[in-house]
Specification:
globular, alpha/beta, five-stranded mixed sheet
């Protein structure tokens, strides 16, 4: 199957299912929309549900928080409008804007943040956020449920397992108030989920269109037990996703333990039994993928493919290829695809994926299983657990059903350089953010400057962890995770919420501005001490004036010979040192829940947002410009080609980034044209993987095309750009962001 087509009517319906595609849309606030109107007779509108939730939560104020939230979820599921439509295989839920948040999760979050600040006596989390130094916060919105449990048990089986575990603990006298409240919340939510499924089933029986019979049978199967076929499986994944992400306030960061691996046994059995034809199964997959394309999350919905079995064989199968074929035929850029790569990954599959990339489908990241193995085993995973790990989010990795993030801290590696020049004071706010490391003009050696940088950075890290200690102990009070926790065997055995140490609770430490920090440091080394073209006093003055009047010095800073991303030994050595310095703060350290701190060389949008609060720096960067992102070079600095870029990126041990590190590679279309060009792209991927790279994704375009797309957006409606761990359409980007891509494209060779 090379080409898949969907009827215009069906595609139009799905594209307008979640928001009106012809009207302005903010993908950051994707849930605040409705598409086609649902049958008013099936439930209440959002306004009525909000009013009901307000009264309900007020009446439940004396109940434990897990129970309050469970009752709120129950209210939404019992009262929201629903849809079963002739143009879609997948059901509709009308109220998908996390309506209960204002009465529960967000209210409780603010209470906990205030409580933590009072107890700690520190406002560093606020000060660091205001100055772009670090973002400190609790993580109560990212999960990967135990898909094995959901697939084998279904919604009814999850509830029965919880009831058995509770009865067992009760018989041993081990049910205290906290366990009792947690169990009640699980029971309330799964009974509500089953009523919701039954409501959909009964509504489907009122329909007589062509798809209705199969949809009804599917919903009947799901309300009674585990999925029996491919449509059941995909419908269950979709329903769980919508309830978790859009009602319960928990993003689902992977759909199945490998979507291809999840589907394959059902796919084979359906064909063998004649349940569905291959064409019907292809259609189910297509309509499933279209849901996430149409939801339109800015960050993209992650799905991973491929991987390795314990016997060393590849998990790539017919469904793996089929997903790529359908995705390509539909011209999607969301969901985003993560592909596990190993020596055993079939070449034809990788060539297919790479050919899609060079043809404009940039929404793929290739993840090196060998590096994942090293990273997870260093964190305590067994070989089997690490090999069978989950790729989640943008390209992060974790083990199945035994680990959840409870906090995050995104550090700006560049900010400490600016603080050395200002003796710890932030330029924009005037706040004393860092320690006084001395008058930079008095430094007589680069060693003094470098030592001051490490002192500033060390202080930021230690203060951040101090604040986190006070926040994290209350994480389970912010957003009880009963729907998710019920899928986790360990949580059910102990009847404990996952966020209350029901499983390993980890703290995620992200690093932004990595290459910018390296370039800024080595610019001081080269300009002041190696080539002596300026002094620290003059350089400080240039930065205070945002380089105005110092154009020649800025030109020299931008064109230093020592840059990360060009294969320079000195720059790469400092990169390795900063990388290890940062990682050393978390190695072996336990958070207040007894879990690990995990390091991720990942920026998300911090390269933009923290950059907006970071003053001019010695690498030639002006006030408030973007920083570098991920393990990638500063924009425009990777001037020596892809080989040098890979050399720099793999000069550091990327497995120290316990949960992820990604290289953004940009190539000119002329370098990957024809059969020889595809061979080149395949070689680039293999080189990066063989040299110990972690993850890599590609943007393949030239500056002229981007400039034309900026001038004539109507001609480039489908042009995709890989931003960080996700794709966006070129026309949806701000001009300032477009300009950065044009700058980088101008320098690729």
């Amino acid at each position: 199957m090379k080409n898949y087509t969907m009827s215009d009517g069906d595609r139009s319906y799905i594209e307008n299912k979640y928001h009106n595609a012809s009207e302005p849309f903010n993908s950051f606030n994707r849930m605040a929309y409705h598409g086609y109107e649902y049958d008013h007779g099936t439930g209440l509108d959002d306004g009525d549900i909000l009013a009901g939730l307000e009264k309900l939560t007020e009446s439940l104020s004396s109940e434990p928080r897990p129970v309050i939230k469970a009752r709120a979820i129950e209210y939404v599921l019992d009262n929201t409008r629903i849809d079963v439509n002739e143009h879609d295989w997948f059901v509709g839920i009308y109220s998908w804007n996390r309506l209960l948040d204002r009465f529960t999760v967000l209210k409780w979050r603010d209470e906990i943040y205030l409580k933590a600040r009072k107890e700690s006596g520190s406002t560093k989390n606020l000060d660091y956020g205001a100055t772009g130094t670090a973002w400190i916060g609790l993580d109560f919105d990212h999960t990967v449920p135990d898909w094995d449990s959901l697939i084998s048990l279904g919604f009814p089986g999850i509830l029965k397992r919880a009831e058995k575990s509770y009865a067992k603990l009760q018989s041993k006298g081990l049910v205290d108030e906290k366990r009792e409240a947690f169990y009640r919340s699980v029971k309330i939510e799964y009974e509500a989920l089953l009523r919701f499924t039954d409501r959909l089933y009964r509504y489907s029986l009122t329909k007589d269109f062509e798809k209705a019979g199969k949809i009804s049978e599917c919903l009947k199967n799901l309300k009674e037990g585990a999925p029996q076929n491919t449509l059941d499986l995909l419908q269950m994944i979709y329903i769980y996703f919508m309830v978790s992400e859009s009602v319960d306030h928990y993003q689902v960061r992977s759909l199945g333990y490998g979507l291809d691996a999840a589907i394959y046994p059902f796919f084979v059995r359906d064909i063998e039994r004649g349940t569905f034809t291959r064409e019907e199964l292809t259609e189910f997959i297509a309509y499933f993928l279209m849901q996430f394309s149409s939801i339109g999350s800015y960050w993209g919905q992650p799905i991973y493919l491929a991987g390795t079995n314990l016997d060393g064989t590849s998990k790539v199968n017919e469904v793996t290829h089929l997903i790529l074929d359908v995705y390509d035929s539909l011209g999607l850029y969301n969901p985003k695809l993560q592909i596990k790569v190993n020596k055993n990954t079939p070449k034809d599959f990788l060539l297919k994926a790479l050919n899609m990339v060079r043809s404009g489908t940039n929404s793929m990241v290739f993840v090196n299983e060998d590096t994942v193995l090293k990273a997870l085993m260093r964190s305590g995973a067994t070989y089997e657990e690490a090999l069978d790990s989950v790729i989640k989010g943008c390209y992060e990795y974790t083990t199945k059903a035994n680990c959840i993030g409870i906090s995050f801290n995104t550090f700006n590696a560049l900010k400490p350089v600016a603080l050395v020049f200002s003796n710890g004071r932030d330029k924009a706010t005037g706040m004393q953010i860092g320690p006084c490391t001395g008058d930079v003009c008095s430094f007589t050696s680069f060693k003094e400057f470098y030592s001051a940088y490490l002192t500033q950075f060390d202080d930021i890290i230690k203060n951040s962890l101090y604040c986190l200690d006070y926040m994290e102990k209350y994480i389970h009070e912010v957003n009880p995770s009963s729907l998710y926790s019920a899928t986790i065997p360990a949580c059910m055995e102990s009847m404990t919420d996952a966020l209350d140490s029901g499983i390993k609770n980890v703290s995620d430490m992200l690093l932004n501005g990595f290459a910018s920090a390296v370039d800024a440091l080595v610019a001081v080394y080269e300009l002041v001490y190696e080539k002596k073209v300026t002094s620290l006093s003059e350089l400080k003055n240039a930065l205070e004036h945002n380089w105005e009047g110092y154009e020649l010095l800025r030109h020299r800073a931008l064109n230093c010979s020592h840059k990360f991303g060009v294969g320079d030994k000195i720059a790469d050595s400092y990169a390795d040192a900063i990388h290890q310095f940062f990682a050393s703060h978390f190695s072996g350290r336990k958070n207040c829940h007894g879990g690990n701190y995990e390091y991720e060389l990942h920026s998300a949008r911090a390269f933009i947002d923290q950059g907006k609060k970071t003053e001019a720096t010695p690498d030639g960067r002006r006030d408030w410009d973007d920083t570098s992102k991920n393990v990638s070079p500063t924009v425009g600095m990777d001037k020596n080609g892809i080989t040098a870029l890979i050399s720099s990126a793999t000069s550091i041990d990327l497995s120290l980034s316990d949960s992820g590190a990604c290289l953004d590679a940009m190539l000119h279309p002329s370098a990957v044209q024809g059969e020889d060009g595809l061979t080149v792209l395949y070689g680039v991927l293999n080189t990066y993987i063989s040299k110990g790279g972690a993850s890599i994704h590609f943007n393949i375009f030239d500056a002229d095309t981007l400039r034309e797309a900026q001038k004539y957006p109507e001609k480039y409606k489908n042009l995709q750009v890989r931003v960080c761990g996700w794709n966006v359409l070129w026309n949806n980007m701000a001009k300032s962001e477009q300009d950065e891509y044009i700058r980088r494209a101008e320098n690729i060779i």
